[in-house]
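Section 5.1 Outputs to date
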Amino acid sequence: MKKIKVFNSSKEIFVLQEVEVADSFWYRFKGLMGRAFLEEGKGMLIIPCSHVHTLGMKFSLDIAFLDSNNRVCHLLTGVPAGKLFLGSRYAASVLEAAAGSFAGQKLEQGDHLEFEEVLC
């Protein structure tokens, strides 16, 4: 699976250091379900995506909905497991991280994100 770093160019700070890119049907379908936790600095970018759920999750999430220009168009923090339908009609992709991750990096609606491939 491809991995990237997420850089907030609006604030000139890295948001997440290792993000899995879910850009196939299978990875988008599975997402983060079944994992016991998500380590600090890690996350998942789901492409394409405009709506998510937290069914089958074992931890809370921060969720950033990104438009086609990778600008945060909607932001949810501390979303508990078991939520059925969360989304934004303007979203082209979704960035997920453990709850509290985005507040620590001061991520806000309107911020522009850039992606840098992580070489293994």
